[in-house]
Amino acid sequence: MRPKIFRCESCKRYTLLNTCKVCRKKTENPKPAKYSADDKFGKYRRIAKKTNK
Ligand SMILES: [Zn+2]
Description:
By secondary structure, this protein is mainly alpha-helical. The protein contains one helix and two strands; from the N terminus they run ββα. It has a two-stranded antiparallel sheet. It is rod-shaped and about 55 Å long.
């Protein structure tokens, strides 16, 4: 289980809340899961192409 960690863009604080306690702004996920998953699969696909001749 991964805890959801968000980051406030204005004060650069990490928080588990989707609203910053300090400046009351909406926080954002610093690592979008979709993007990193795509990147990983792309890497594996390239490796698979090289090794499976
Ligand atoms: Zn903040």
